[in-house]
Amino acid sequence: MKERLSIQPIAPEELELVAEMNRQLQSDEGSRVMALDDAIRRLSKWLANEYSCHVYRVNGQIAGYVLYRSTDPDTEDHSDAVYIRHFYIVPEFRGHGLGKAAFALLTEEVLPSETCITLEALVANPSGRAFWKALGFQEYSIRYERKPDSKNAPQ
Q1: pTM, whole model, 2 decimals?
Q2: Residue 77 CA neighbour count, 13 Å, CB half
Q3: Which candidate in 39, 61, 105, 140 could, as Cys together with 19 as Cys, close a disulfide (CB 3.0–4.6 Å)?
Q4: What's the pLDDT score for residue 142?
Q5: What is 5-134's CATH number, 3.40.630.30, 3.90.1150.10, 3.40.50.150, 1.10.10.410?
Q6: Around Cβ 54, how many Cβ atoms within 10 Å?
Q7: Average pLDDT in the 136-147 region?
Q8: Between 115 and 45, the higher pLDDT residue
Q9: Does 151 score more than 50 pLDDT?
């Protein structure tokens, strides 16, 4: 049987599941993993403000999500730009082209045509970076960060 992929706006009862997927995304990309309650609060705050979230389903089962806002926070002058904050596919659905199909569905059914899309991928996440490059995204900048307790801080 052929898998059927769909995309719908997040339902209120899916908030905790999406927050848990966000925690899995953080783990996958090598970020600090938030407590579930903190992830739920942050996601709720974003959704109450400028972000939108859609979930992907394969034959009715949630297979991932995308969180985005209608303008890139770093390029406010581009009113036609979309900034993707999170794009996540559950591990058991990876490796068979579902991520590519999910992104295509987002651009065909949800986002306006001719939209400039920006996103970030952590340097420590080579598989994520390779995924976006395979979809035609090009590296634009490198963001630097120095934590206050860094051993590399000037003496």
Answers
A1: 0.85
A2: 0
A3: 39
A4: 79
A5: 3.40.630.30
A6: 20
A7: 83
A8: 45
A9: yes
